[in-house]
Amino acid sequence: MEVGFLGLGIMGKAMSMNLLKHGFKVTVWNRTLSKCDELVEHGASVCESPAEVIKKCKYTIAMLSDPCAALSVVFDKGGVLEQICEGKGYIDMSTVDAETSLKINEAITGKGGRFVEGPVSGSKKPAEDGQLIILAAGDKALFEESIPAFDVLGKRSFFLGQVGNGAKMKLIVNMIMGSMMNAFSEGLVLADKSGLSSDTLLDILDLGAMTNPMFKGKGPSMNKSSYPPAFPLKHQQKDMRLALALGDENAVSMPVAAAANEAFKKARSLGLGDLDFSAVIEAVKFSRE
Amino acid sequence: MEVGFLGLGIMGKAMSMNLLKHGFKVTVWNRTLSKCDELVEHGASVCESPAEVIKKCKYTIAMLSDPCAALSVVFDKGGVLEQICEGKGYIDMSTVDAETSLKINEAITGKGGRFVEGPVSGSKKPAEDGQLIILAAGDKALFEESIPAFDVLGKRSFFLGQVGNGAKMKLIVNMIMGSMMNAFSEGLVLADKSGLSSDTLLDILDLGAMTNPMFKGKGPSMNKSSYPPAFPLKHQQKDMRLALALGDENAVSMPVAAAANEAFKKARSLGLGDLDFSAVIEAVKFSRE
Amino acid sequence: MEVGFLGLGIMGKAMSMNLLKHGFKVTVWNRTLSKCDELVEHGASVCESPAEVIKKCKYTIAMLSDPCAALSVVFDKGGVLEQICEGKGYIDMSTVDAETSLKINEAITGKGGRFVEGPVSGSKKPAEDGQLIILAAGDKALFEESIPAFDVLGKRSFFLGQVGNGAKMKLIVNMIMGSMMNAFSEGLVLADKSGLSSDTLLDILDLGAMTNPMFKGKGPSMNKSSYPPAFPLKHQQKDMRLALALGDENAVSMPVAAAANEAFKKARSLGLGDLDFSAVIEAVKFSRE
Amino acid sequence: MEVGFLGLGIMGKAMSMNLLKHGFKVTVWNRTLSKCDELVEHGASVCESPAEVIKKCKYTIAMLSDPCAALSVVFDKGGVLEQICEGKGYIDMSTVDAETSLKINEAITGKGGRFVEGPVSGSKKPAEDGQLIILAAGDKALFEESIPAFDVLGKRSFFLGQVGNGAKMKLIVNMIMGSMMNAFSEGLVLADKSGLSSDTLLDILDLGAMTNPMFKGKGPSMNKSSYPPAFPLKHQQKDMRLALALGDENAVSMPVAAAANEAFKKARSLGLGDLDFSAVIEAVKFSRE
């Protein structure tokens, strides 16, 4: 199977490499072309614009850094729109809001192309290991044709219906994550301030019904006040805000998520926005006593 | 090793049975004596009062339903205090507040006895399987002498320092649980009201960094609005309140736990107090549209 | 002084009538022209488009129903932009968001015109009585030239600096109002459920340091579960959301406003969005016991 | 009319002085007897114990600093209980919890005496001016006989039914006050961080439907970060906690009060407990940017 691949950041590079390793013919493009070199050494072809990739390949996957980049790759000169046409499929796996996704969808399908949004759950390590979770939505037939690629990139792919649903599902997952992180932080601080060991609390949690990889992975470093940014706090807070906005649209009252969101905002005001989102514990800890 | 065992409710019966199966000589007592019969069939001896059990055994474990029962077994006529003395150890594994525990400790040690509080994390099934988590505190030497019994009853036992710490640690664990349950509930309802499948959300969560036995165990029944009471909502809410009071004592602000507590209170006002604590999702769901 | 006046809804009619009564020469326009009749009887002139009003008058005030109407009156055919030019001033007193205001400002000043935004605090009655509070921002000189008109329309006018600040200030005032309404609602319900009289609570509040016209005005009807819409709950909730968004922008954590916002959302989900915002008390009251 | 008066702190001294000025014969007692001197100069008699005051007077009013002092004056040697008997009335105007009040009531009525609890709303200045608000409950006939005294001490007295209701009503009033103070604080900080003047916000609020003596009185000093303790933050937080506990008892969910309570706890952890409760704004303000 032959696929195009736009965007070779941390995620995109790991993903396109996996496709190569599994026998896909891959044609890559990246804004900074030199980033393509390593992929070429492993057998990839290169094009000089997104439009050229689309022209060459029936299926093109994109993995871009943000909504702005995702729009630019489609709408700018030399962009996807110039060559997309009937028979071609465009799969955007970038994390974007539903509105951006709908805009891209409209443009692609307006030219006769097919579109799938496929944001992923998981960061660098799962991308390298082909263990992402893919939250796809849009053109059902294109989704099905993309399964061989998705099987290489992720451990599971979901088809969630109309365009926008992938983005929404991801927000909901991240909202639960943000509230859980606050619940966890409050517990660790309460243990400590009550004269108990927060490390022992980790051990106890690990043995019970709430044990989960996030607590196990982040707890020990949180107890050491170390927050290397796997998922920056400011992005987590942005996702909380967007999830709350989704609740607003649908008249769902979510007081726990709202409280968690305000805690993340407090953490931002304490200058922690660029640290890992687990740094929200600092907002709970903070005192002058 | 010979041990006394006071209280043969759901938990106590499973626990004393485990001790018998592992070769302990067990002398039991229960307010309703007929409940001892099954244990006797498996080799237990019976006494007619807590005092008699204490008299007979060097170590006595208690597993009573609430603080009131825990106090009564110690202080009432025929109670533990009548026979406790130097050389004897009393291990109360009931779930009680720190104050109750301290009161019992004072009385026991006042007579020369030794005391360990050992509330457990885990309910019926882990009790039967000897997979409880034991949060012990108090007399360190007695704790160490009790390890053979704890090893049968639980998969892990922790020694947490002075009496009261076991109770506090349990509150903190339950507080995290209550906030997590609310985070989970809000996510499931938001998915549903946003036109996404809350069952798919369960599948996605299950594959990611937040996967945990509680979500896996309770999610499917929550999506079917079924809440068979494993841990009644009103007890969960009480523990949230007590954990918040512990935070109050130590000047720890916990806005997420506070919001979760108010959601449990709303659920109580909706008549859901006797259902499982996962029924808090009904307070999130509730609407007139 | 001669002024144009665009928009003769409940607010605009009362305001332009006040200008006439105080000796201003007023030229009016309204989308439904027949609404101008009453004003003409009191001496107003009429034009057939916003552009004509602008052409005729050095100063034109607008009071439109929402951001959409405010934009349309400026940008559509026959709109303000067609005639605005150096020497002319446009004062938009509609309640719009900062973004809309900035857009209008840019267009007006791009043509050499001058712009003031002047959202008001106060509804029908204060408009009729000339007792509005005017939150103006934008062109300082135009603001000063407008004072004779503002003195007729309101009891006080504030100049708040750059365009957008009027809209922001209004959001902040409404945010405080929404949180206060929730504080009040929780108190009334708590009194009632605790076996105290919520009417007596009103009397007590009225005598103390918290007495305010809102509690006095709305309390008695809230205790009778009556919520005739002076300010619809869904608009109050929208303003809470926008104020929280303003806090998000500036990293201000506002947990009380966030909790109040979620209560308003719950009220919306209970079908109360079109009632007065004091109906949020129904979300507090709601129980099944 | 002749009355006894126990307790001559800031409040009690001002109150007993008012009684003297209005022609009451007053017999006073205070733990530190020298504090009685000023009253004696104005015509008061003195007794050496609460019991003696009770013996001498048909009606005795108490105004003590806290529940502990209120209990001590009744139950200790030389206390009220030694002389209270049929025909005598005891009116405790101290601020105590419902439980303390019930305990005193039981003891007094057990001896045949009559009891009214009458906590007040208002601090030093209203006490001096005879402008307190009296929240009375208990013996209705005694309440009515006390009205001449209450008319001197306060601007209004309420009879709220059974003993405990006075204490509860006061908690509810203070809960509303605490939430309002947080709403106000969040608004002031949001204005400031959004580039608006928080002093102008005060002016705008003062002109609108939310204007109230508390905002007017405390706003200007809050904007100057000055918090001379009229009502200490730690006491306000304690009242919030007790009001939330009252809600817990009656299954009333109060998310806004709960969020406000957590903000006061955060303020305590920042070392602000002894300042005025308006210092909670510091918890909102706090940032590292």
Automatic annotation (TrEMBL), chains A, B, C, D:
Pfam family, any one: NAD_binding_11
Domain 3-hydroxyisobutyrate dehydrogenase-like NAD-binding span(s) in chain numbering: 164-283
6-phosphogluconate dehydrogenase NADP-binding domain ranges (all copies): 2-161
Reactions that this protein is recorded to catalyse: 4-hydroxybutanoate + NADP(+) = succinate semialdehyde + NADPH + H(+); glycolate + NADP(+) = glyoxylate + NADPH + H(+)
Gene Ontology CC, one term: cytosol
GO molecular function annotations of the record: glyoxylate reductase (NADPH) activity; NAD binding; NADP binding
InterPro entries listed in its UniProt record: 3-OH-isobutyrate_DH-rel_CS, 6PGDH_NADP-bd, HIBADH-like_NADP-bd, HIBADH-related, HIBADH-related_NP60_sf
Keyword tags: NAD, NADP, Oxidoreductase, Stress response
Similarity-based family: Belongs to the HIBADH-related family. NP60 subfamily.
Function: Catalyzes the NADPH-dependent reduction of glyoxylate to glycolate as well as succinic semialdehyde (SSA) to gamma-hydroxybutyrate in vitro. May function in redox homeostasis and play a role in oxidative stress tolerance by detoxifying glyoxylate and SSA generated in glycolate metabolism and GABA metabolism, respectively.
Protein's recorded name: 6-phosphogluconate dehydrogenase NADP-binding
Lineage of the organism: Eukaryota, Viridiplantae, Streptophyta, Embryophyta, Tracheophyta
